[in-house]
Structure formats: structure tokens, C-alpha cells
What we know:
The protein is α/β, with parallel strands linked by helices and 391 residues long. It has 13 helices and twelve strands. The model has no long low-confidence stretch (mean pLDDT 93).
Amino acid sequence: xxxxxxxxxxxxxxxxxxRPGVWTERLPRKFVDRGPRIAxxxxxxxxxxxxxxxxxxxxxxxxxxxxxxxxxxxNAVAGKPRDQIxxxxxxxxxxxxxxxxxxxxxxxxxxDGVQAQLLFPSFPKFAGTMFQTVKDPELALLCTKAWNDFxxxxxxxxxxxxxxxxxxxxYWDLEAxxxxxxxxxxxxxxxxxxxxxxxxxxxxxxxxxHWDPLFDVFEExxxxxxxxxxxxxxVRLTAPDAPMAVMITLAGVNSINAVxxxxxxxxxxxxxxxxxxxxxxxxxxxxxLLERADITWERHRYYQNINQTVRPSDLFQKHIxxxxxxxxxGVKNRHQIGVDKVTWECDYPHSDSFWPNSRKVxxxxxxxxxxxxxxxxxxxxxxxxxxxxxx
Length: 391
């Protein structure tokens, strides 16, 4: 087994479910009745996610302003039998406590053999994009800041060696985002969850100069831009009647699109020290994409408005990290990716996670990989990227 006892698993993609009082306890009194709050469904509500489903009577739902959001713990199914995976919890009682309680999460991590996790949001969506829909801009900003304070105070501070500090930004307001990023950096935050593609959300693309002032601050404070699958608000459905299995299988396509966009944008030329982590897309596609991008660059760069001096694969090696849960093809081709650019993820408490057997599964997948390379992929690459040393 290549995972020796001294190797600590550091996961760069996990999720927490926000407990009921996160916002009601942190928002000013005048906003409590409009901010995120838990209610019991009467059974006549409409799912605001657009799936056209009814909301089961008696289930617990999130309310934000006047909208009902029934995905209480989206895909928070850790510990359920395989034949029950995929059924979203209807109440907090349907989830194991590790989904929403930090002390219980640490216990679950110990059971799983995982030392540290980086936690993405649930109710605010993975990059805080939920709050863009809030009608009151002051409330939207306060909701964002409240989530950041909640994670820092209740998860990171009590367990500084178990949770990598991460935050979200009010990315729809550039000046507010810069101010919040500086505030978070002063509190030790090392990473920010950011949309993988801002265009579908109604904002300028990465190739524009719109994001330059914000990316300047990312470089200044040495924070990683974490782009998680689905944060653009787009998922890959091949047809309206395609089963969700198609979307799950093609999750990596979102990552391919995001990385391809960045490699041919000016972002890395304008920001030579910026770092991006691509979450929940796997790594097996990376060798193909880099080969294809380099061929495209060689043949087409002279007549297109793209950089003509640096190969896309070289930009990837300097600026982008990938991660995997299980990816035999990616691990086999790790040298074509760059062993230093590979990190590992657990994805607790979602259905792709192998909890409570993550360490066993990782060991079996890398049984033929030299110890030095295993250590990099499961621990030290992440520690270096996120400036998260062993305590």
C-alpha cells in the first residue's frame, strides 16, 4: 500500500451544510425576516431552482426573501446505502451531523483517514452565486459576509489544522469584492470560491479587463481562485430528457471549458502570479486538452488575437492545479499533467465521495505509484498551494 501512515490526506474539495442559525444570528435585525432562514414546507410551494417539482409537506426548506429553496442539504448523502444515494435530505434529521456540525465533521474525517478539508458552501451555491439573486444589494453583501464569518468562526478557528480557510465574494460588485477579499486575507483566508465562467451569470468574461483589479488583489494577498464545477450555473445536459447520470458523467466538460477559456485569455499574462484550482472535474482530460491547446496555438496563433509567446501547456504548469477523487487514467498519466499540479479531493458529504473508505480507495488506486509522488498528490501539493503547513 503506497499510503504510509505518515501521509496525511488533504482534500481540496468538500462541502458543509449551513446550520439553521447562520444568517438569523448574524444579520442586522431589520434583515432577519428577509435573509436566509429555515421554514417548514406547507406542501404548496414551488421549487425555485426551476425543476418544476413540488416541495414535500413537512420538509425543511431555506427561505430567502420570498423564494423557497428546498435543497436543504444538496446531495448531502454521506453514510447512506448506495441504493439511497441521490435522494436529497428533506430535514436536518435526514443528514448525519458531520454535514453541518464541525465537531462531528472532524470525527467523520478521523474515521475516513482525512486530515484536512477545504469546504465549499451549500445553500449559497458553491461560489455564493445564490446571493446575486437578492433584490437588496445591502442584504446580498451582508449575506456573503455572514457566510464568511460563520466558516471562519465556527469551523476554521476551532480546528486550524483541519480546515483550509476559504471564502466567497460579492463578485457582482467589484469594489465590494476587493474590500471583502482584503478583509478575508487579514483573517488568514487562503482561497476564494469563484465562478468557473461569469458570463452565464450575466457578467464580463475572463478575457476582458473587467476582473483585473480583483485579480491584482488575488496576487497581492496570495489567495487561490477556486473554480468548482457548476458555479457558472451551467451543467451539461445533452437533452431535456437525459438522465442526471449524463450530467454527472460529463462534469469534467465544465472544467475543460473553464481551463480552455483561461489558457487563451490574457489573465495569466496580466497576472503572472495568480493561481487557479479546478475542483470536481477530475484530471484525466488534462493531457488531451494541453496537447490540443498547444496544437491550436502552434497553427492558429498568428492570425488570432491570442498570445504569441507562451505555450498554453506552459501557462497551465505555472497557474493551474487539478484534483481528483478517483481517476485511474489521470493518475496513470500524471507525468503528462505534472505531478506537482495534481491534488486530491474527498467531496464529503456528496454522492461521489467514498466516505468512510476514502483512504482505502485512494491507496488502492495508487498502489503502483512511488511513495514520493503519492505524498505530493494527496498532501504536500495542496499544503504548498494553500499555504497550509502541518501544525
